[in-house]
């Protein structure tokens, strides 16, 4: 146990028990991974939002659908999620429209199914690793609490070797144990905030995608009349 006069954070960590150090190491690693995905997902969701806005402006500006389809097909990977939804729907529409024996309803339903499949892939990609942030936010405080409880148990157990128990004897042990809870909260709070924000952004994009699919289906339906 460290002396009561030497209670810096680094000293508390260095003098913690093996179990508490192991808990701190796990939490530090989880925190590093969560910050990595916080930045990665933030960049990818912002890019998807900007690409969606750009494509919506291009689509509703009155561009020819065939030319727009060709442009998106040539740059599909960089076009953005909404552009890929459009591309898959128009490709299926053109394929079925060029075949004989298909009713208008069958063509529209085929285009909708193609867009829905692409929509689901895009949403899954946007939501990827958000579950990890949710898990970090919910589990990290309990992992830190486990380290704290273990450290406090060791602190009180060490009092058995001391004739007179005073606050000066028990305070350093309790302080080093509480560092585990602090690290757990440091890992959990940013992950919870990021998860709530990102899931809200994905929901907003999802609504925009679904609205576009309905409006685009109506446009395709008018072209069949």
From TrEMBL:
It comes from the Bacteria. Its main location: membrane. InterPro entries: ExbB/TolQ_transport, MotA_ExbB_proton_chnl, Tol-Pal_TolQ. Belongs to the ExbB/TolQ family. It is a multi-pass membrane protein. Keywords: Cell cycle, Cell division, Cell inner membrane, Cell membrane, Membrane, Transmembrane, Transmembrane helix. Residues 80-210 form the MotA/TolQ/ExbB proton channel domain. The keyword Membrane applies. It comes from Uliginosibacterium paludis. The chain crosses the membrane at residues 12-39, 130-153, 173-195. The Tol-Pal system is composed of five core proteins: the inner membrane proteins TolA, TolQ and TolR, the periplasmic protein TolB and the outer membrane protein Pal. They form a network linking the inner and outer membranes and the peptidoglycan layer. This is Tol-Pal system protein TolQ. Pfam families: MotA_ExbB. PANTHER family: PROTEIN TOLQ, TOL-PAL SYSTEM PROTEIN TOLQ. Part of the Tol-Pal system, which plays a role in outer membrane invagination during cell division and is important for maintaining outer membrane integrity. The keyword Cell inner membrane applies. It is found in: Cell inner membrane; Cell membrane.
